[in-house]
């Protein structure tokens, strides 16, 4: 896609190309059904409200992991670090053991907290709304942890990269 000032129609390819200009972080949404850990990769995570504390994310309507996590009502959003691209790939692929050799511990709500992440947000399902080929999920935050010494994995224009932190 070339640089243009022309208004383009929102077909799927153009949507992907234009919205790919918005840099996002990458997260893995996890849960535990009492028998096994569950998870999927997600780049559509955002803060919704500070009071009450809500976050949002958007799983694909075709996700097989989200309905299993939804049924538990509890989840963790694991914000991936810049050295966790392989973790992202592992959780983005259907039909495989997503947890494989990954180190994780159960969070306070029982959901897997992946080692080495930038941050983890523990939450409970609050609302869901169908939205085309995705679902908008709003979750009530019940716990937070962050590692200021780790840089995030970023997704931009179809590729992954890192971030140089600004002076504080």
UniProtKB/TrEMBL annotation:
**UniProt keywords, alphabetically:** Monooxygenase, Oxidoreductase
What Pfam families does the database record attribute to this sequence? Flavin_Reduct
Spell out the Gene3D superfamilies in the cross-references: Electron Transport, Fmn-binding Protein, Chain A
List the InterPro entries hit by this protein, alphabetically.
Flavin_Rdtase-like_dom, NADH-dep_flavin_reductase, Split_barrel_FMN-bd
Q: Which domain of life is it from?
A: Bacteria
Where is each Flavin reductase like domain found?
19-162
What's this protein's family per the entry?
A: Belongs to the non-flavoprotein flavin reductase family.
Q: What is this protein called?
A: Nitrilotriacetate monooxygenase component B [Rhodococcus jostii RHA1]
| Native organism | Mycolicibacterium parafortuitum
């Amino acid at each position: 896609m070339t640089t243009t000032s022309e208004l383009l129609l929102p077909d799927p390819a153009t949507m992907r190309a234009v919205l790919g200009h918005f840099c996002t972080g990458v997260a893995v949404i996890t849960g535990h059904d009492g028998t096994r850990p569950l998870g999927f990769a997600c780049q559509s995570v955002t803060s919704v409200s500070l009071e009450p504390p809500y976050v949002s994310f958007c799983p694909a309507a075709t996700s097989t992991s989200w309905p299993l996590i939804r049924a538990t009502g509890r989840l963790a959003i694991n914000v991936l670090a810049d050295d966790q691209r392989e973790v992202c790939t592992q959780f983005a692929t259907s039909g495989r053991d997503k947890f494989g050799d990954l180190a994780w511990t159960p969070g306070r709500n029982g959901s897997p907290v992946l080692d080495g992440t930038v941050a983890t947000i523990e939450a409970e399902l609050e609302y869901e709304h169908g939205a085309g080929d995705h679902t908008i999920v709003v979750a009530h935050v019940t716990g937070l942890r962050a590692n200021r010494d780790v840089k995030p994995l970023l997704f931009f224009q179809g590729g992954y990269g890192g971030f140089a932190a600004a002076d504080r």
